[in-house]
## 1
Amino acid sequence: MERLADRLQAGEVLVADGAMGTLLIERGLPPGEAPESLNLRRPDLLEEIARLYAEAGAQIVGANTFGGSPARLAMHGLAGEVEAINRTGVEAARRGAGEGIYVAGSCGPSGRLLKPYGDADPDEIYAGFLRQTGALVAAGVDAIYVETMTDLAEARLAVRAAKAASGAIPVAATMTFDRTRRGFYTVMGVDIPAAAAGLAEVGADLVGANCGNGIEDMVLIARAFAACAERPLLIQSNAGLPETVGGRLLYKETPEFMAARVPELIAAGAAVIGGCCGTTPAHIRALRQAVDRTMSGRRPRAKETREGTQA
Ligand SMILES: [Zn+2]
């Protein structure tokens, strides 16, 4: 299989998968249970989700390892299972996705606040990310996603660890931004220029945003990255912001609504487009069709910087 890095280098735009957590909840993940415990207990569910996304046209599927760092697993009494949880998560995704599909290991926040905001020691958090990403690399991932980060210092520790675990596979780093009156910021106060520069500096091969926004704000975020980022973008949008209906969280953006914004994402430099919370295989199918339509007769990917880019 052609290396993922080569395809990105050649200017291809690839489609990633959609939400994992919301599909696991639909399949009966008990509240409060670590989703990653299913890697050991119910790998068949993860295999099924990877298969559904691959059949929908995803070219990269994520392993169910978002909370697979030792600090995060320790909150569920699973710190001793770091290697097993990350390995079985990758294996389930690989079995489900089948031939010709890339598997990305997900590496989310540690769940601890770094000093000086909290009591977590950066060296300890780095060592934890190194242990997790080392397990992902040993299991044969094609890429690592550092994702849903809000603290730039923590995101940088994770990227450094992932690059130390393997210099050979792409490492993508995305942060989660909220719309404020002054522009887009993470909850820890990181803006898009700071994220773009700070993540690239430690070696992220792709930068961008996941979660926290629907597709319209993600287009604005992508343009803001395009104005300052030297790296290709990974954009994984929610299917809108959740609304509580009858005690359940509902995400209301339809596949067609999200897919209609794909040309703008590509124009802003998105190299990998996927979904986050609330997206389903139907959303990914629509995104893939939109990417194929946009890219037919138009390659390689061109980065356009625009006037009036807003953050
Ligand atoms: Zn999300």
## 2
Amino acid sequence: MRKISKEIKEKSKLSKEEWKEYFYGHWYFGGARQIEHEAMFPEELPKRLIKMYTFVGDTVLDPFLGSGTTIKVALNLSRNAIGYEINESFLDIVKEKLGLKQSLLQFSENIQVIRRQASVNVDEIDYLPRIKDAKPKIDPKKLNFKSDRLYRVVDIIDEQTIRLNTGLLVKFLGVKIIKREEAIEYLRDRILKKEVYLKFDNSVVVDGNTVNAYVYLKNKIFVNAYLIKTGMAEADKTKDYKYKTKFVELEKRWKNG
Ligand SMILES: C[S@@+](CC[C@H](N)C(=O)[O-])C[C@H]1O[C@@H](n2cnc3c(N)ncnc32)[C@H](O)[C@@H]1O
């Protein structure tokens, strides 16, 4: 294993906040406007990965350069970078991104563009990323955490929606609120500002920023079940989910006193 000097380790260090945020199960940050290339990702994505997995002075390889987001970030983070791009028409965009367009020098002394002899006919390569192919919805599998992460509830949006400190909106899965005022009061008194963890099931994603989930307080109180058990809500019978039978049973028990 290679030895990394103390100085390099120090320069590559993540702050406590970065460490906590980067090594959590999933990340939330804005996307990139697709103005130059149709499949650009935001700088925050390579930034985090580069800071997590490389040291200052290491070399980052991006085999699918596109508009050059990864190498731009790598260079900014004092890493070396190599990028491969099959479509030469992106070169201008890459240069623009790296700030080389404005430079009087053809290329900076630290940056080289090497054209390689194509071993295939590039014109025949059918690579055309399209925005419509992108799936901006949150992948349910990614939300199915192994380790339970705690979130803080920062807002009660309505009787069935809370906002977490990551900006994610969460609706109570399997729950149909029937006593709106009472439910809001309960959420404000007992859930707002508290730490919760989430579990997921079917139909997780409502939209790009909202998920359906089972919400648990740190002390394991199951909020969805509690809402039904106390008559503030009924079980949602319009869709299938893991705890449907349990929720219907809780609703019956409440109704039968
Ligand atoms: C999804 S885009 C990368 C976008 C990039 N992450 C950004 O932020 O701009 C993939 C890029 O890989 C290039 N590409 C596809 N096949 C390639 C290959 N065999 N060798 C090099 N580049 C390739 C495409 O031309 C396209 O620009």
